[in-house]
Amino acid sequence: MWNCKVVIDMKRILLLVLCFLLAAMPVFPQYAECGIPQVKNFGPADYRQESQNFCVAQDKNSLMYFGNTNGIMEYDNEKWDIVKIPGRPQFAVSTNNEIFIGGYNTFGRLQYKNGHLGIDPLGERSNLTFGQVNKVVISGSDVYFSTDRHLYMYSDSLITELINDEPFRLISVGDSVYVQKKKNRLKRLVHGSFEDDDLCVVTADT
Question: What pTM was estimated for this model as a whole?
Fold first, then answer.
C-alpha cells in the first residue's frame, strides 16, 4: 500500500514533467527549422508571364533574374519587373555586378533608365545577324556570347567575332573559358586568343 506522501510526491513529479513538456513544445519547431532555407515557389500566375524559363541568376544586391519566353524578369523579393528581349534570354553576372544578356541577334547589358529596367546595346555592330545566343560566359573583363556556329567577345566596348560559321563547344571552368572546334584540340580563350594550357595538354593526350 502506498502511503499518502508517496502519492503526493508522484503527483508533483508528473506535474513537473507535464509542465516541462508543455513549455518545450513551442521550442521544437524552432529547432526543426534552424538551418533549413525557406523556399517559396512561384508559378506563372504569380509573375504573370509565360511558364517557360531558360536561365536564372542572382546579383550582388540579392535581386533575382529569370530568362523567360517574354523577356528578362527581375524579382526584388516584393514585386516583379520585366524587360522585353528578342528570342530566348541568356545572361551572366560579372564581378562588377553587371548583367550581360544575349538573345536573338542581340547583345546587351541590363541597366536602369529613368527608374525602369532596360537594355543597353553593346558595341557598334548592331546589324549583326548571328541568330540565337545560347550561352553567355564572363572571364575577367571579357564577355563571350556563343551561338551554335558563332562566337563573339565583348571587351573594351568593342564586339569582336572569334568564330564564324563553324561548330564548336564553349566550356567555362571557374574563371577560365575553353573552346573546342570540331576535330580540333581544346583551347583556352585568353582575351580573344586561343592558347594551350595544362588542361588542353591533358585532354589532347587522352
Answer: 0.76
